[in-house]
Design goal:
It is built from 19 helices and no strands. The protein is an all-alpha fold. It is globular.
């Protein structure tokens, strides 16, 4: 019996070890103190291409194939570009701008196979040429972030791979400029989420101490951008941005940097945002009061609606012309001047139709 009980206990211990996760995420309180943080990011891995026998001829052939209308020939040209970037960089560098422009054009291709192949080719260029691609970062980042808004998971996974290689292998300053220009004010929330995730990855690659104690231009651009995305309407965007703020909070100069670089018109909004950042750093949660402070006042909403109604009514009055008048009463919202009524002349429907 004793032997059986020992075997059962050993089996239970083994099962517990199996169930134990390999990557334990730290609690937000531990993240704020710099404890239990995940290991540094590892650059994405790519499939390898075979070397080419005649790389000089392959370069011209690749450019010709990329201009062809057949998608099979386009994919063959992209394969040649990947092989040149991996094994024959000295041949590709003199024509790098023309090659990159051709590949970016294929990223916008409507055929998903060609577009995904071009996105993978951009990842190879970033990985193997690294800072030689700095001059092409802004255009590539803008195109990739726009492509991240597509519904196809096949394309979005490729974009995530390409943005990861971009962040890891190119100059941080150029990467930051490209991300801010291409996705910070994008209308699609999915594109803004990709931007927020890339900014978080950039902070992890560069390091908090380098951001806050290095060049002021980098900190003065990335901290306001992350603070803006932290109040975005989309939850996925806010999640990555607030994770970036918690990551910044592991440094003692983080709060003073936010007060220095985040310029707000309203001093109360500045203080509420700073307090909310400190709350994220300590607990990883936000209060409902912070979200309400970030929302626009109700008086601004009423003023906006009043202006909108005024513009629409005036447009209808110009379109229909004279006719039977209908009085439309509007009042100023509370706290914005005194109450004042205004009327517009609107024709009757029958007369309006007859006049057209």
């Amino acid at each position: 019996m004793a032997a059986h009980s020992k075997k059962d206990e050993a089996g239970q211990v083994e099962r517990v070890r199996r169930k134990k996760p390999s990557n334990i995420r730290a609690a937000p309180q531990a993240v704020g103190k710099g404890q239990g943080v995940e290991q540094p990011l590892v650059p994405p891995s790519l499939t390898s291409e075979d070397p080419l026998n005649r790389p000089e001829e392959a370069l011209g052939q690749a450019l010709c194939l990329l201009q062809d209308e057949e998608w099979e020939r386009k994919t063959e040209g992209l394969r040649l570009v990947r092989a040149l970037a991996e094994h024959h960089a000295e041949v590709l560098l003199p024509e790098l701008h023309y090659v990159t422009t051709a590949v970016i054009a294929e990223v916008k291709n409507l055929r998903s196979i060609v577009s995904r192949d071009a996105i993978t080719t951009m990842a190879h260029l970033f990985t193997h040429l690294q800072r030689e691609m700095d001059s092409e970062v802004e255009g590539a980042a803008r195109t990739l972030l726009h492509k991240a808004g597509e519904t196809s998971l096949f394309i979005r996974q490729g974009v995530e791979l390409a943005l990861g290689t971009l962040v890891h292998h190119c100059s941080p300053g150029r990467v930051l400029q490209g991300l801010l220009a291409g996705g910070l004010r994008h209308r699609n929330p999915v594109c803004r989420a990709a931007t927020s995730q890339s900014l978080l990855m950039l902070l992890q690659v560069v390091g908090v101490s380098h951001v806050l104690t290095g060049k002021k231009t980098f900190a003065s651009e990335i901290i306001p951008a992350v603070s803006t995305l932290a109040f975005d309407a989309a939850q996925e965007v806010r999640t990555h941005a607030r994770a970036a703020l918690r990551y910044l909070g592991s440094h003692k100069k983080a709060e003073s940097a936010v007060e220095k670089f985040v310029h707000l018109k309203d001093q109360s909004a500045r203080s509420s945002q700073t307090q909310s950042c400190s709350q994220w750093w300590r607990t990883g949660t936000t209060s409902e009061e912070v979200d309400e402070a970030a929302a626009p006042p109700s008086s601004c909403k009423r003023l906006f609606l009043r202006v909108l109604v005024s513009e629409v009514t005036q447009f209808l009055g110009v379109l229909w012309g004279g006719g039977v008048s209908a009085r439309w009463e509007t009042h100023r919202p509370c706290g914005i001047g005194t109450s004042q009524s205004t009327s517009w002349e609107c024709p009757a429907p029958k007369q309006a139709l007859q006049s057209l």
